[in-house]
């Protein structure tokens, strides 16, 4: 059973007049990310909606901005989904965390931070979820450059040579130039996606 | 200096921090928990993820839609068919494809068989964690093999089935297949009785499982738990009933609920769910109609998957996988690859409040609690 988005928008505008909303593809975009917490709290506690279950939290990269998407359902009234989204600039993506209201956001917000670099403010444990602490970059962003695993680094060559394994001069040169420039080897993307 | 100071502090000296996993047999592969122990009591627990991380989502964003189907098998490798189901209905929602009647029945039959396989496997492994080494598990595996042989005959593979297609299924069920399924379904209650005689009223099992890992209904809802774990806490929420996706509204089945939300309830809810699945299978086998197994509009995409370009838009599809709500969020930009592809994995989100379930209990009980949640690391780490 679905609730029409227009109805939610009308209800929200009546109760929270300061919040600016926009309809996008059957979902509500909250123009100012700061308002997310009060909108979620209203939808959770209003007896008409009772959205007590936050199913999915995820990010998406739209080149000019990052987006955080939320899918809410109601276990009590058995309806849904209600989709909310907030947008944040790419260089400084800050969105309030929903963990104080919905515990289910805890690991999912950590995942979205790990893969997209969206910082959830107020998260009790804001660490990466899958990658290790020292990892640089956010792999699901469209401009993420993947490392070329076949190019050896200076440390790799030293390790191999200490064990008596010969490394071609060409590889050594490449490692040296990259090391001097302070860069890492970037994998070439195929022009066409793989089939 | 500071360390010796801390050691003199008697409270701190008694707390021992150990890394549980990633190679421990009860962690189902490569899962690690950092556990703080006071004697044998747990006073802190932090799960650590990522050992099986392969960035499934990025791999999928570089592939045509049809090719992702084979990758979804690798999410929850115990029941690949449920993952196929979730992905197929999401893309059908996105592209507006209809599924023929017979294909829907084939899908439901296969998905329910997968649920039976998953639940008996889980119960077997949970008893392994309890210390009942391999006897109950091998009883369960004996029955599981029968169903997996059938899967191999129908789909070509025991585990990585890759059986669903957008707008239908890969292959039709023959009369012989249906008869074989019917035979398994009619013989299964006898096995369940044998299994239950061995376990349900077993004194050791009751003592180890009752009042362990208790989870209240409010916490479970707030933490987004789904599947048998949620229903064992007494929340009546089954996506097969709520969304009635596919053709689940045509079958008569009940949703078994637990009362306390302890490990025993989770075990027993699964036993009851197998019985309900068998009921659905019986009805589906009796009613399955003749007809097409693929939507005609989707047929050309089987040969040329790169021609399949859903219109610009997004879809969120979810199914009741045996582990909980399996959701797929796909954004299409009109090209052969998805712009954004996200999996809402029940195995990951069901671990959100593992710490609360284990606090104050013995370490041996934490292992059983983890076993009763039923995680698969392929899905948790993605």
Describe the structure.
The complex is a heterodimer of chains A (195) and B (382). Chain A has helices at 5-15, 36-45, 105-116, 154-162, 169-181; strands at 21-24, 27-30, 53-61, 65-74, 79-89, 94-96, 119-121. Chain A has 195 residues and is an alpha/beta fold. In chain A, strands 1-2-5-4-3 form a five-stranded mixed β-sheet, covered by helices on one side. The radius of gyration of chain B is 22 Å and the shape is globular. Chain B is α+β, with helices and mostly antiparallel strands and 382 residues long. Chain B has helices spanning 2-8, 10-13, 56-61, 65-72, 80-95, 101-130, 135-155, 175-199, 203-209, 217-222, 228-232, 239-242, 263-287, 300-303, 346-349, 354-358, 363-373, 377-381, and strands at 15-20, 32-38, 41-48, 164-165, 168-169, 313-321, 324-332, 338-344. Helices cover 51% and strands 13% of the residues of chain B. A three-stranded antiparallel β-sheet of chain B has the order 1-2-3. Chain B has a three-stranded antiparallel β-sheet with strand order 6-7-8. Chain B has a two-stranded antiparallel sheet with strand order 4-5. Chain B has 18 helices and eight strands. Chain B has two domains: 2-48, no CATH class; 56-349 and 361-381, Cytochrome-c3 Hydrogenase, chain B (Orthogonal Bundle), CATH 1.10.645. The longest helix of chain B has 30 residues, at 101-130. The two termini of chain B are 43 Å apart. The interface between A and B is large, with 33 and 43 residues.
| Distance between the first and last residues' Cα of chain B | 43 Å
| Discrete helix count of chain A | 5
Given as residue ranges, the uncertain stretches of chain B (5+ residues, pLDDT < 50) are none
Largest sheet of chain A: 5 strands, mixed
Q: Strands of the biggest beta sheet of chain A: in what spatial order?
A: 1-2-5-4-3
Radius of gyration of chain A: 23 Å
- In sequence order, what are the helices and strands of chain A, one letter per element? HEEHEEEEHEHH
Under CATH at level 1, the class of the largest domain in chain A stands as Alpha Beta
Number of domains of chain B: 2
Shape of chain A: elongated
Number of helices of chain B: 18
Largest sheet of chain B: 3 strands, antiparallel
In CATH's first tier, which class of the largest domain in chain B applies?
Answer: Mainly Alpha
The largest interface is: A-B, 33 and 43 residues
Low-confidence parts of chain A: none
Number of strands of chain A: 7
How does the helix and strand content of chain B classify structurally? alpha+beta
Mean pLDDT of chain A: 86
